Amino acid sequence: MHTIAAISTPEAPGGIAMIRISGEQAIQIAEHIFVSYNHLTISEMAGYTCAYGNIVDKGERIDDVVLTVFRAPHSFTGEDTVEITCHGGLYVSKRILRLLFQNGAKPAEAGEFTKRAFLNGKMSLSQAESVMDIISADGEAALKQANLAKDGYLGKQMSGIADRLVDFMSALAYWMDDAEECPPELERDTLSASLNEIKQQLDQLAADYQNGRIIREGIRTVLLGRPNAGKSSVMNWLCGTDRSIVTDIAGTTRDIVTEQVKIGEYTLLLSDTAGLRETDHQIEQIGIRQAYQELENSEFALYVIDANEGITQEDRDILGKCPKKTLIIWNKTDLTGSEPPDLPFPVLMMAAIENPSFNGLLQCLRGIFGEAVTNRPQIMNERQHCLIESASASIHEALKLIADGSELDILYTSLEDAVKSLREINGTNVDEDVINGVFSKFCVGK
Ligand code: GDP
Prior knowledge:
6-stranded mixed sheet
């Protein structure tokens, strides 16, 4: 395989930049352009050691750098690797990269370093995917989940389940071929109980995925309420800016304003909408139509009610169209001591105008979304989710065959399908297209 090079740090000026070279020729190529201050050549350097020196082009010094050597297989990619840490100017890092290309390195494709790590057996496909999740983690919870996957817990769980199923398949094969008596683990009740337990594990993983998705992608949230209830004030409280125009003229907010707000471990992808009410005003009507569309696309609604006015039939009608996960904000409590009536959703009492802390809201979110941070390994993307669902469906099929009283040898194919899906999560026997699809989502240099 050819030797690849890329800048691994972001394409922006910074304190330092890092250029990575990986492949059989990594050391020789780097040697052409590097002169160390202690006169040691890179070939003489042991793995995991650094040298301080200059990058030179035809005798001209380009930059002074720190160069680190990793020797195969003890590197991220499993190949000989050299990392050059230079000054973080865009020109200087690109100049060094160009020099490496002139000396025989090829430009790395997106995710190619991690792809090589996978192909060289340094990590499973699910671990490779978690590298990208670590890079894109935007908070403590997302990072924790990505690290669990990176440490291989998900992969181990998948292998463990697949190995159990393979044991059943071996017992079935043996029994079909030779044995006269059914082995105890293949007694219908015992086998059913074991497969049910495995299915439950898979279904738990699929359910946890929804929570994991909320952590990674944020919660599509719509902010609703009748005009003047205080939606824009709530939006500004959440965003800490005056993003939405606050006035007491009904119908001021006509566009959908979107913001991303971090509340504890949750990210709300918020859209503030036009106040919902009957109106003849044409532009406002468009805003209201958009608000209803937003409502359909959202998985969470914050519904603002003016405590001073109380709840109206119109509010109740709109609440009837809200998602299952909705929080009512009983706003303007500074104006009235009136308690909210019985409402179909949890209620947060507050006065947006007083800019309260987020503690109350965070407690409500935890109540509504449950345990967003778990120590259980979670599946992290749609590829893994589909494979878990299909493994679960194959086991469901096997359970049905047992329940229907079918001959047990028919189960073999269903179990085999489940194993295939589970193994695919870790990247065993996957098509090249699947592998390329996974790594195409990576950035260059990773
Ligand atoms: P929207 O039409 O639902 O977006 O409502 P706005 O946020 O524009 O607020 C309408 C009016 O209610 C404005 O005059 C706000 O200052 C006022 N308002 C909003 N929240 C509160 C609150 O908590 N207490 C009081 N007293 N007034 C508020």
